[in-house]
Write a structure and sequence with these properties.
The complex is a heterodimer of chains A (455) and B (123).
Chain A (H helix, E strand, L loop, with lengths): L5 H14 L24 H8 L7 E9 L2 H10 L2 H4 L8 E9 L5 H9 L9 E2 L6 E8 L13 E10 L3 H5 L15 H10 L7 E4 L6 H8 L3 E6 L2 H5 L18 H7 L6 E6 L13 E6 L10 E3 L21 E3 L2 H15 E14 L14 E10 L4 E10 L26 H10 L8 H4 L7
Parallel strand pairs in A: 2-3, 2-4, 6-7, 6-9, 7-8, 9-12
Antiparallel strand pairs in A: 1-5, 4-5, 10-11, 12-14, 13-14
Chain B lengths: L2 H6 L14 E9 L6 H7 L5 H11 L17 H13 E9 L6 E5 L2 E2 L9
Antiparallel strand pairs in B: 1-2, 2-3, 3-4
Classes of the chains: A alpha/beta (455), B alpha+beta (123).
Protein name (chain B): Multifunctional methyltransferase subunit TRM112-like protein
Family (chain B): Belongs to the TRM112 family.
InterPro entries (chain B): Trm112, Trm112-like
């Protein structure tokens, strides 16, 4: 991931903890921006389960001691109950001590010095570098500014290693190596994070109404869910048309969503994909899905389309095959996409089920009030990922809390005419006009870098 | 298209009130082997219209001894779940179409994928 999504990390861990039925209990010293988080009230099993799913978290440790200096660490460690230490320090066991320095590289000799300095702890076992039974870690925090690395760490921790996160999934499921991709295939890391936000679990039924090449479904199938999707684009659903790969002109026969699942060994998860218009749903009016996860088109790299009559008839897209003609496409206004999506989710999610989607935002006009709402859905989180100085997208997570009612007094909120998001309908124009905008004398460098005030 | 999916689809042709279930006219049907997962089958059953499932399977000639009525306590009945699994997930319509029972409008299925797009005058 190009940018670290701190808030997305927070939401991912929170969602995974709630899958375990556990709340997020930060310790007193908790700072969301810090790469080190201390949480209370979790069992080792809780931690293992969360780490088995998280792509944001690197490693998890049972904290034994901490402090601003090594001296404070030592005091803290000597206070840690020895009965909690001894099970992992038995004479017949093996162990090793790792040293992790965040934002600094240590010479080998310095690492050894630090390991040796821990000898005041009652280690009885033998050191084994290859496959120790217990791994302990000394962690040093040298801040987050790579251009300003202090000589001494601002904080140090010592603990017993429990588990690593699933960052390897980002590499193993990289879109670069996937059979079937498109121009806007979601990268692997974000797909897994979205699946975690949605609390996707084994035997869930998950739907993506703008499925494209199925990246989100791949992530959900990895966590054991059964998946289905629809897309208005015939060629993409059938795996036909022009390739998105550099040296390839047309897509090959094994390029489709089903093939992607087969590539990762989760073909049993494949339910169906269909060519369908998300604004005209084809599903029976009943609760069906445990989660709806999607990345709707923003109108920039993919057009927003729907079927219907329109005074200004838009030329149908250049088709590889005549069957894929979308009958008289009309512009699918961005605000309508999200209103429809929320309405659809309210009707078809199980109670407690989640909707997770990306909402494109024109930053100078953004305010929290413009996030689309629905009386049957509760907002869980809203995490920003900056795309450019004036655009970003927000990862929205909502949870269904009740069945929609005909007579809902707040129903007007889901009416597109009242949507404060209306202003973003011209997102495409704003996106491109911003890029072409020359720097006038009113523009400061700060604004261009996205750090200045917003209008 | 699998029969689990078919069971959840309805006709969305404008003005149609009795669009469920869609009739299946298949010219090619395949039976694939899919890993049996009793928990998943069990979870899906409450979402289904059982009679529509039986009707669809029968119409395709792939009933596979599926009972006409839901067996009580089906969650623990592995034999029943295996039959349900076969019909829901292993039977696939590869070529053919889905037909709206009220308007007669047909939605083609090709390479196992239904095309549910409507024309401008039907919307």
């Amino acid at each position: 991931m190009r940018k670290t999504l701190i808030q997305t990390n927070f939401c991912e861990i929170k969602a995974l903890l709630s899958l375990r039925g556990k709340p997020f209990h930060p310790a007193e010293s908790f700072k969301e921006q810090s790469p080190f988080w201390c949480l209370d009230g979790l069992s080792e099993e809780d931690v293992r389960t969360v780490m088995a799913r998280s792509v944001c978290a690197k490693s998890a440790f049972e904290l034994w001691g901490h402090g601003r200096t090594h001296s404070e660490l030592r005091t803290s460690l000597l206070k840690y109950p020895s009965e909690n230490m001894t099970p992992f320090m038995q004479r017949d066991s093996t162990y090793r001590i790792n040293v992790y320095t965040f934002n600094k590289t240590l010479e080998f000799a310095d690492r050894i010095k630090r390991i040796d300095a821990m000898e005041y702890l009652p280690f009885e076992g033998t050191v084994s570098l290859k496959s120790p039974q217990h791994i302990f870690c000394l962690l040093e925090d040298y801040g987050t500014d790579p251009n300003n690395i202090p000589e001494h760490p601002s904080y140090v921790y010592f603990g017993r290693w429990i588990a690593d996160g699933q960052r390897e999934l980002i590499r193993s499921h990289s879109v670069k190596n996937r059979h079937f991709i498109g121009n806007t295939s979601m990268d692997a890391g974000l797909s897994f994070i979205m699946a975690n936000h949605a609390k996707v679990k084994e035997n869930d039924l998950v739907f993506d109404p703008f499925v494209g090449t199925g990246s989100l479904l791949v992530a959900c199938s990895h966590f054991g869910a059964y998946v289905c999707g629809t897309d208005i684009d015939y060629n993409t659903i059938h795996g036909k048309g022009r390739s998105s790969r550099k040296n390839q002109k047309w897509r090959g026969p094994d390029e489709n969503i089903r093939a992607n699942l087969r590539q990762y060994g989760t073909q049993r998860s494949y339910l169906d994909v269909m060519v369908s218009d998300a604004s005209k749903p084809v599903w029976r009016d009943t609760v069906l899905f445990d989660a709806i996860i999607t990345d709707p088109p923003y109108g920039i790299r993919e057009s927003t389309r729907r079927t219907g009559s329109h005074k200004d008839i838009t030329k149908p897209p250049d088709d590889f095959c005549g069957e894929s003609h979308v009958p008289v496409s009309m512009a699918y206004h961005l605000s309508d996409i999200f209103t429809d999506l929320l309405n659809f989710s309210a009707h078809h999610l199980v109670k407690g089920g989640r909707l997770v989607y990306w909402l494109p935002v024109y930053r100078p006009e953004y305010c929290e009030e413009m996030i689309p709402l629905h009386p049957s859905l509760r907002m869980i989180s809203n995490c920003e990922q900056t795309l450019s100085s004036h655009t970003s997208r927000r990862l929205i997570t909502m949870e269904k809390i009740k069945e929609p009612e005909e007579s809902d007094a707040l129903a007007h909120l889901s009416d597109p005419r009242f949507s404060p998001y209306q202003g973003h309908n011209a997102f495409r124009e704003k996106y491109f006009s911003g890029l072409n905008k020359k720097l006038g004398k009113d523009d400061s460098m700060d604004k261009v870098n996205g750090e200045g005030q917003e209008g | 298209m699998k029969l689990l999916t078919h069971n959840m689809l309805t006709s969305h042709v404008k003005g149609v009130t009795k669009g469920y279930p869609l009739l299946i006219k298949a010219t090619e049907v395949k039976v694939n082997e899919v890993e049996f997962n009793p928990e998943f089958v069990s979870r899906m059953i409450p979402k289904l219209e059982w009679s529509a499932l039986v009707q669809a399977a029968e119409g395709l000639g792939h009933l596979h001894e599926l009972p006409a009525e839901l067996t009580p306590d089906y969650e623990k009945n592995e034999e029943f779940l295996k039959k349900a699994h076969r019909v829901l997930l292993e039977v696939e319509v590869i070529e053919g179409c889905l037909q709206c029972p009220e308007s007669g409008r047909e939605f083609p299925i090709s390479r196992g994928i239904p095309n549910m797009l409507l024309n401008e005058d039907e919307v």
